[in-house]
């Protein structure tokens, strides 16, 4: 497998025989806030993830350092914005990537992305969380879209994704007031799947990644596409028609795993999944 692109202030490691990619933002002293240059690096990392069929699942989390309160991602590095172009930034990297904040908030990933929220997720960091498929949070994690307090708006997809997840009134509370929502309340609202002790956040995320690998990768990818379509298209018939023509669904129906699943059941054995079919 080709090595991932080297990204400043971001580390990558592989777990579970290389099938799980763990992405860690390594800027704990800045509460893992992200300047534009790092976000472009993450953009290339997520391109790598999407294009590499050997990787079945990805996890994103925040790095930690002794004596510093843990954070998942505090959003945009405002110091880098206020200083315009820093000495290490070029005009090409001064703007955010087309894939959105952190190289992922606008993405329609075909494969699962798990957020291991080990601390605060604010602004763009919260938008990363909102675009993940499964979210595990520590008991001390907090979630907020406080952009209005800085004279800007949550344009990294938060304005679109949050109401779909929590409903209009709760979205208004978070966005217009900049309200900070603790982990347990975020779980009640549907932002978070599970709340666990801080020390267990990444461990639990890896366990969930293991569970995702029990099923066929093609079936997981096709199912994710259908769920996204149903949440974005109000008309059930239109959502169904669109799903039937999606490349992920077509690949699943014509792939080896569609035959392997029923065959392994009939033969009373564990399925031997072949991995993602080429799109």
TrEMBL record:
<dbReference type="InterPro" id="IPR001753">
    <property type="entry name" value="Enoyl-CoA_hydra/iso"/>
</dbReference>
<dbReference type="GO" id="GO:0006635">
    <property type="term" value="P:fatty acid beta-oxidation"/>
</dbReference>
<dbReference type="GO" id="GO:0016829">
    <property type="term" value="F:lyase activity"/>
</dbReference>
<dbReference type="InterPro" id="IPR029045">
    <property type="entry name" value="ClpP/crotonase-like_dom_sf"/>
</dbReference>
<feature type="region of interest" description="Disordered">
    <location>
        <begin position="258"/>
        <end position="279"/>
    </location>
</feature>
<dbReference type="GO" id="GO:0005739">
    <property type="term" value="C:mitochondrion"/>
</dbReference>
<dbReference type="Pfam" id="PF00378">
    <property type="entry name" value="ECH_1"/>
</dbReference>
<dbReference type="InterPro" id="IPR014748">
    <property type="entry name" value="Enoyl-CoA_hydra_C"/>
</dbReference>
<keyword id="KW-0456">Lyase</keyword>
<protein>
    <recommendedName>
        <fullName>Enoyl-CoA hydratase</fullName>
    </recommendedName>
</protein>
């Amino acid at each position: 497998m080709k090595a991932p692109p080297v990204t400043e202030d971001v580390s990558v490691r592989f777990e579970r025989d290389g099938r799980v990619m763990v992405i860690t933002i390594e800027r704990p002293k800045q509460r893992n806030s992200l300047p534009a240059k790092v976000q472009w690096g993450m953009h290339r990392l997520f391109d790598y993830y999407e294009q590499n069929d050997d990787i079945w699942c990805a996890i994103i989390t925040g790095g930690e350092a002794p004596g510093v309160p843990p954070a998942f991602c505090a959003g945009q590095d405002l110091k880098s914005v206020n200083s315009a172009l820093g000495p290490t930034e070029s005009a090409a990297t001064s703007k955010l990537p087309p894939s959105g904040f952190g190289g992922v908030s606008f993405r329609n990933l075909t494969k699962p992305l798990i957020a291991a929220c080990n601390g605060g997720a604010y602004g763009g960091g919260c938008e990363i969380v909102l675009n993940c498929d499964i979210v595990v949070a520590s008991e001390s994690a907090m979630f907020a879209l406080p952009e209005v307090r800085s004279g800007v708006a949550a344009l990294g997809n938060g304005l679109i994704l949050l109401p779909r997840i929590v409903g209009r009134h709760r979205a208004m509370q978070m966005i217009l007031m900049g309200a900070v929502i603790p982990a347990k309340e975020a779980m009640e609202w549907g932002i978070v799947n599970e709340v666990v002790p801080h020390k267990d956040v990444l461990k639990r995320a890896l366990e969930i990644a293991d569970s995702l690998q029990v099923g066929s990768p093609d079936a997981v990818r096709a199912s994710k596409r259908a769920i996204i379509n149903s949440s974005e298209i109000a008309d059930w018939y239109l959502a169904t028609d669109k799903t039937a023509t999606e490349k992920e669904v077509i690949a699943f129906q014509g792939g080896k795993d569609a035959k392997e699943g029923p065959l392994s059941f009939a033969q009373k054995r564990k399925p031997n999944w072949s991995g993602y079919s080429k799109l």
